[in-house]
Amino acid sequence: MAHLELDVGNTALKWRLCEGERRISGGRVPNKSVADLPFGGVTEAWVGSVAGEQFNRTLRDELAAQGVTASFAISQRRCGRVQNSYTDVSRMGVDRWLAMVAAYYRAGQRSVVVVDAGTALTIDIVAGDGQHLGGYILPGAPLMVRSLGLATDRVKVEVSSTGDLSPGRNTGACVANGCTLAQLGAIKQAVSEAQAELRGSPVVMVTGGDGRGLWELGRSESTEWEYVEELVLDGLAPVVRASGER
Question: Is 47 within any annotated ligand binding site?
Fold first, then answer.
């Protein structure tokens, strides 16, 4: 029986249609509308959403109108061997939790630094025994660019892709490359902190809308970096099953 998997972020919805563990199709909806999703023969959807309670209620109702029962993933104290470090696990965005669970098992239950580069940039460290050691949250490139536009009179540019690490020679390039430098610097420093804490080199697993560009710039011979486009979606099955909502 086919089911839908939905990753609802701050600005877009990612989806894929699966039959068992086999991916049939997938895509991205910038406005988070479910109107064009492939509902034919689907009766179940697994959802990871950071869009807020009001949106989630509307989403549940829209899916129900299509005959689809929605199971929403939640951040948990533990899922399999992965253990959450938060005292109040409900305060952790479910996208981070889904990405951590998926990354840990994809890495073969080795230590992993999980990077999700979207509206925000999140970086989480999971040890080889599955213990979450903590993480970092900072503005992603879209928020960095927006803050410059709001707080200055002359730095108003549109940045549509990840920059490079060279010094810019116009304002647009300076902003794009500066945002990239800041994000990549944060990731590499987090990896350095993880190496010191773990006394070894973790896998670095990158996802998110700006993830591929950062992965291409950041991978090196000394550290194992991997880009996984649907990492958050990959975490839905184990987390929803562990929560007993399925």
Answer: no
